[in-house]
Specification:
2 domains; two-stranded antiparallel ribbon; about 180 residues; four-stranded antiparallel beta sheet; Topoisomerase I, Chain A, domain 4; alpha+beta; Gyrase A, domain 2
Length: about 180
């Protein structure tokens, strides 16, 4: 019974880690990534949709991203949304293409990015703690119901702790790699 609880926990842990990876991709380090802006909400013709639905986003160079819009009429809404974002991009429009150039990272910007990185890491670790607590409650409830033996309850807790420890290490590794990338 305890193994079933742990097996059900694994997909939730995988999703939490995938969410963290996605968030970390949005943190700009020395390289400007298309993932930074692909989910930017754009208002066009009375509807709001992510930028990735309005055109192709690609890296034009190390510090430049190109957005090739499917239709020229999207340009005004996209430029407005990019200017409202607090990224400090240089924006250049060429027909139905928009080029975003990243300013150089200053020491202060790097420190702010690292603060954001640590916030995202802590959010992921808190999520893991909540998932761990939920699984532990299920083990205790199973013990009270008589569906989990006492030995299995403690064996399950030990395996649960080991499992969470492994996932925490993955988060720490991702965070450390991103921090190195930011510091250049």
């Amino acid at each position: 019974m305890y193994q079933e609880i742990l097996d059900n926990l694994k997909p939730e842990l995988e999703k939490a880690l995938a969410d963290l990876k996605e968030e970390l991709m949005k943190i700009r380090a020395s390289r400007l990534s298309p993932s930074l802006i692909e989910d930017l909400k754009i208002e066009c013709f009375g509807t709001v949709c992510p930028l990735k639905q309005l055109g192709a986003i690609s890296s034009a160079s190390f510090k430049e991203v190109m957005v090739q819009l499917w239709d020229k009429s999207y340009i005004e809404g996209v430029v407005r949304a990019l200017e409202q974002g607090d990224w400090g991009f240089g924006i250049r429009v060429d027909e139905n293409k928009i080029y975003l150039t990243a300013p150089a990272l200053t020491e202060e910007t790097r420190k702010n990015l690292i603060k954001v990185l640590h916030q995202r890491k802590e959010e992921a670790l808190q999520n893991f703690r909540k998932l761990r607590d939920k699984a532990w409650s299920q083990l205790q409830d199973g013990f009270r119901d008589g569906t989990v033996r006492e030995d299995d309850k403690f064996k399950g807790r030990d395996k649960l702790d080991d499992m969470i420890k492994d996932w925490r290490e993955k988060v720490e590794e991702l965070s450390a790699n991103k921090e190195k990338e930011i510091l250049g």
